[in-house]
Queue: 2 jobs
Job 1
Amino acid sequence: GQQLNQSPQSMFIQEGEDVSMNCTSSSIFNTWLWYKQDPGEGPVLLIALYKAGELTSNGRLTAQFGITRKDSFLNISASIPSDVGIYFCAGQLNFGNEKLTFGTGTRLTIIP
Amino acid sequence: DAGVIQSPRHEVTEMGQEVTLRCKPISGHDYLFWYRQTMMRGLELLIYFNNNVPIDDSGMPEDRFSAKMPNASFSTLKIQPSEPRDSAVYFCASSHQLAGDRRGYNEQFFGPGTRLTVL
């Protein structure tokens, strides 16, 4: 089956630093998504990407849909304490197929 | 809106017992998903429904797992008999097919999850 590999697995940064994480796949996806999971909660959608090469921002978050449609990255600028959590990429193979494949996750910790 | 509601939030049971997890999707949503999250395997889709009909159950681990959606506002995931390797957090999510939405992705809204421990 499809696999989405995320890197890094974990990050320890100081407040105010920028963060970058990425996701690669062996398959082509039509849609790339980035979710965030807070402790004890379910994942929440941050950004959705629909076109190869697309660059989308949501506040301090910026994500790009790779030109090959097999990768995506997420950047967080000027990190704040509430950015702590696990970030997941997810891919949707085809429009009309609601099934998502999730990445392995990147755990972000902010050092005081 | 109350969001997706799952119950119980925590379940501890002994091996061999039957476990039933419950989910109430967001009102008006026509898709419902069951996921399992573990450290080893991450977040995996088990099954999803559209208008109460199972569409893809290829992620259901084995015959011990079954899911039903008797109506638009309720779904269950049952494990019988349960085993220690079933210990995980189980999430329910729902989404709505947006008419005329050419993007093709309908945002899935996740519930808070049920943490299952099988001893």
Note: Chain A has a mean pLDDT of 92.
Job 2
Amino acid sequence: DSGVTQTPKHLITATGQRVTLRCSPRSGDLSVYWYQQSLDQGLQFLIQYYNGEERAKGNILERFSAQQFPDLHSELNLSSLELGDSALYFCASSVAAGSNYGYTFGSGTRLTVV
Amino acid sequence: AQSVSQHNHHVILSEAASLELGCNYSYGGTVNLFWYVQYPGQHLQLLLKYFSGDPLVKGIKGFEAEFIKSKFSFNLRKPSVQWSDTAEYFCAVKGAYEGGKLIFGQGTELSVKP
């Protein structure tokens, strides 16, 4: 157990639907990062939050959005789902925004869009 | 733009063979460098990291990596692999003075035959 908790572990949904992925960072970590891992794109950075505020944005589609709540957990919302959104979505956390400590990853949510 | 290139997509070795996985990055400034390992069905785990100082970095499980600034490289090595090293290995880079997002390479799948 890495200390970063992601739920659910698996999610199967239909095209056009909307889902919410949840991440609880490791205790004491203020920064949360979302990554998408797919066979063709590899690990792609989506978005980073630090203490409730968006800090950096990567290759995140407009259909996707995220937020970090006062208790520091984060949610990634994926809407109008397409088959190509099927992937493993990882959350990572770190102590600070530009952390030099490395990042602790969660076990991921495997999303399958059918 | 920052990028990371891992030369080998799939490496197959026999137990006790030596391992070297190549990683080159593209970035104009000071960098932090990381190697992560992902065992089948598990989250990414940090193997080792380089921030500054001795360019030869030792990590967990007998792995080490050497930062060669002139070659923009951070190759991962292990003198003698074991079957349990079968996993996917990711090189990642972050600008040392930037926000926290990691840029990952495409990954190298290592298969070790007993």
Note: The mean pLDDT of chain B is 92.
